[in-house]
Amino acid sequence: MASLSAQIPLCLALMMAACLMIGINGSIDGAQREFDYFALSLQWPGTICHKTRHCCSSNACCRGSNSPTEFTIHGLWPDYNDGTWPSCCYRSQFDVKEISTLLDALEKYWPSLYCGKSSTCFSGKGLFWAHEWEKHGTCSSPVIRDEYSYFITTLNVYFKYNVTKILNEAGYVPSNSERYPLGGIVSAIENSFRATPEVICSKEAVEEIRLCFFKDFKPRNCLASKTSCPKYVSLPAYVSMGREASESEIAWISDDEAL
Ligand code: U2P
């Protein structure tokens, strides 16, 4: 039988191995635990496109009169109730062929509003859609289990809960001079969807609105967070830039130069 002094390092080694297997997020063998709810994150092009300093073909802000004028999709995010979220849950390299039938809709409603490639979990850099699928989509199991389902589900939820329409109907229209009460914007969404959204601002301008859902896609409240918005916010109108904006000084660069 081994002496006590020989058993102590053995025990320590076994404990360390057990800790490594359980992982810091409390999951067995490195898998992340199942998420609690979904957040559909929507971006406001009027705010983001105002920050565009140069144009490239991948940036929807640079489409001139065809640039988006409604909230567009940032992503569908599986989240935890404690304010954290899982990411990059398994290796699944984005394959654009799997969503070929959705590309027209994705270009229109889920475009990148930036130049340059996005970081991906395992392959370095790729399309904005690759980033969202690999980082968030892979963590949406067991509700969503493959790339096509991730994109079609997100589009369907986006069409069903039309924030731009709700805000327009309540009088919150794009404007470069008006300021609106943040509480009024939140109430308009609460009255329509029966759930409280999260609003993210860049200075006083609304940059993102997040809608939250249970796993069956029934609306639920987002987490009560300290909002980044002041009491009165703006919903900037899109200012044309890109190929048609002859007066604009914005330079065109290739997507690769934007990296
Ligand atoms: O908010 C800044 C970035 O953090 C990521 N995020 C935020 C909230 C949340 O619930 N889940 C989440 O992932 C987003 O990162 P992205 O998807 O853009 O890489 C968000 O932009």
Automatic annotation (TrEMBL):
GO-annotated cellular components: extracellular region
Pfam family, one: Ribonuclease_T2
A GO MF label: hydrolase activity
Alphabetized SUPFAM superfamilies for the sequence: Ribonuclease Rh-like
Active site, UniProt feature: H74, E132, H136
Keywords from the named record: Disulfide bond, Endonuclease, Hydrolase, Lyase, Nuclease, Signal
Coiled-coil region(s): none
Family per similarity comment: Belongs to the RNase T2 family.
UniProt GO BP: RNA catabolic process
Signal peptide (from-to): 1-26
PANTHER family: RIBONUCLEASE T2
Entry protein name: Uncharacterized protein
